């Protein structure tokens, strides 16, 4: 073990290794004349049982999600296309974060903790781009496989059991505070990712060494 007591680093994927999907949501809202942050607010409403939560737990197909999601939006007076919204979630890769993962995976156990869903045939090209990054992790913990998702506490305990570490030995990076809170309550040290430079600077502080 190192001086910081860290044995493992857990990473979210979207919003950490790629730019935040909320940026793409906002651009979509502008093009469609939808109120700013409507999609983000909709996803945060009834967040444990709404269409998005059901998709990430693999409770519904993409087609079923789109129907449910569009109904939720329509109930708020907004007409949305679920497929178009899903197309927004794939951001641009942050090479600095990928490099950090490559370096740190030589010293620490690494796991990707991701809320995701079963891809459609149209997502094959995106999967081919992301696969080399996912292959860098020792473990990939997926909501669609477990049937539970962040921020459910069981998701984090399952991740620790899988990696064979205690929460106190983990640093967890995510771009959503709601996902960090239960991890912190379990004993993990957490970093809310706003930008690559900010996140890596905080990570170096917690690790007590440079990432090089």
What do these coordinates show?
This protein has 212 residues and is an alpha/beta fold. The protein folds into two domains: 8-20 and 91-207, Rossmann fold; 21-89, DNA polymerase, domain 1 (Orthogonal Bundle), CATH 1.10.150. Helix content is 48%, strand content 11%. It is built from eleven helices and five strands; from the N terminus they run E-H-H-H-H-H-H-E-H-E-H-H-E-H-E-H. The protein has helices at 21-32, 38-44, 51-56, 62-75, 82-86, 95-104, 124-134, 143-146, 153-163, 177-186, 196-207, and strands at 8-11, 109-114, 139-142, 170-174, 189-192. A five-stranded parallel beta sheet has the order 3-2-1-4-5, with helices on both faces. Helix 10 (177-186) links the parallel strand 4 and strand 5 (189-192). The longest helix is centred in the N-terminal third of the chain and has 14 residues, at 62-75.
Brief account:
The protein is α/β, with parallel strands linked by helices. It has helices at residues 21-32, 38-44, 51-56, 62-75, 82-86, 95-104, 124-134, 143-146, 153-163, 177-186, 196-207, and strands spanning 8-11, 109-114, 139-142, 170-174, 189-192.
